[in-house]
Automatic annotation (TrEMBL):
This is SDR family NAD(P)-dependent oxidoreductase. GO terms for molecular function: oxidoreductase activity. The keyword Chaperone does not apply. It comes from Amycolatopsis rhizosphaerae. The lineage of its organism: Bacteria, Bacillati, Actinomycetota, Actinomycetes, Pseudonocardiales. Pfam families: adh_short. InterPro entries: NAD(P)-bd_dom_sf, SDR_fam. The keyword Oxidoreductase applies. Keywords: Oxidoreductase. It comes from the Bacteria.
Length: 286
């Protein structure tokens, strides 16, 4: 048991961090704590007014910018407007078990929010990243199944939970492939995974899986859930580490380096997924 808490965050003065989806939930706690430790925190959010109100009065330097990770135009605009070092990029924004919907780009809303949008954002911002990219995934990646011929749920009947699990496995494979490309290029930048376990936020409010949140002895409060993200963002862990709660099943507890599911360590699949995703977003761009 590590019992690591946000009180042990290093001094982050002079460092710039982007946290996506930081207007509420785990993203807001992550942004708050990183700013308290001295970082200049950029909140990439859909509703800038709500985010501004959320951080009003909190100590630290916050910069609130418009970003809808499900909208590739918005993702590109956010990246195009970036200049200067970006020490830590935290891909936190996410949705869970939502009904089938297509974005303006024609993409599956859940998949693009959790995986494809962050994939594009990361690739566009990578040249500015000096320290690491943190991908917020889920223990549910262990149940994930990816169909490379139908990444975007066009052929198969859509299922909200299956799409969530697949998107979070895609995030784990993205981290694997990104880390291997960074290592091959001799880069010191790291790709790190964070799993909050189960944290009682609004994420699953509309989902049948929300029933788990009633069992508080099984779950983390949001403050503790965010610790995995904070640990992954700031501690000296090896590239492609999977940071998650140290308790039973990785569902609650304090952050520790754990092991991702076997499917998340398949390097061949990770390379194929990278190519298939590039093809998908290339088709949107053209
Ligand atoms: N809570 C858990 O138990 C748990 C477990 C495993 C993984 N996670 C992951 O942790 C991350 C944060 O979840 P949470 O628990 O904090 O949930 P949450 O309270 O529902 O927060 C989700 C955040 O994502 C933002 N978001 C959603 N779609 C977006 C988009 N298209 N563009 C930009 N931002 C968007 C939301 O912004 P709006 O305010 O604009 O809606 C909100 O700030 C997610 O990736 C989730 O999958 C959570």
């Amino acid at each position: 048991m590590t019992k690591w808490t946000a009180n042990e965050l290093p001094d982050l003065t002079g460092r710039t961090v982007v946290v996506t989806g930081a207007g509420r939930g785990l993203g807001l706690i992550t942004a708050r704590e990183l700013a308290r430790a001295g970082a200049h925190v950029v909140l990439g959010v859909r509703d800038t007014g709500k985010a501004r109100r959320a951080v009003a009065g909190l100590p630290g330097i916050f910069d609130i910018r418009s970003l809808d990770v499900s909208d590739l135009k918005s993702v590109r605009a956010f990246a195009d407007s970036w200049s200067g070092d970006l020490d830590i990029l935290i891909n936190n924004a996410g949705v869970m078990d939502i009904p089938a919907a297509r974005t303006a780009d024609g993409l599956d809303l859940q998949t693009v929010t959790n995986y494809t949008g962050p994939f594009v954002l990361t690739n566009l911002l990578l040249e500015y990243v000096t320290d690491r990219v943190v991908h917020v995934t889920s223990q549910l990646h262990r149940q994930g199944k990816i169909d490379l011929t139908d990444l975007d749920w066009r052929r198969r009947k859509y299922n909200g939970m299956r799409a969530y699990e697949a998107s979070k496995l895609a995030v784990v494979l993205f981290s694997l492939e990104l880390q291997s490309q960074l290592t091959a290029a001799g880069s010191r930048v790291r790709s790190v995974l964070a799993s909050p376990g189960i944290a009682r936020t609004a994420l699953a409010a509309h989902s049948r899986s929300n029933v788990v949140n009633r069992f508080t002895f099984l779950t983390n409060d949001p403050e503790r859930g965010a610790l995995s993200v904070l640990y992954a963002a700031t501690q000296d862990v090896p590239g492609n580490s999977y940071v998650g709660p140290d308790g039973l099943g990785g569902l609650r507890g304090y952050p520790a380096v754990r092991r991702q599911g076997k499917a998340g360590l398949d390097q061949v699949m990770a390379g194929r997924l990278w190519d298939a995703t590039n093809e998908l977003v290339g088709a949107v761009a053209s």
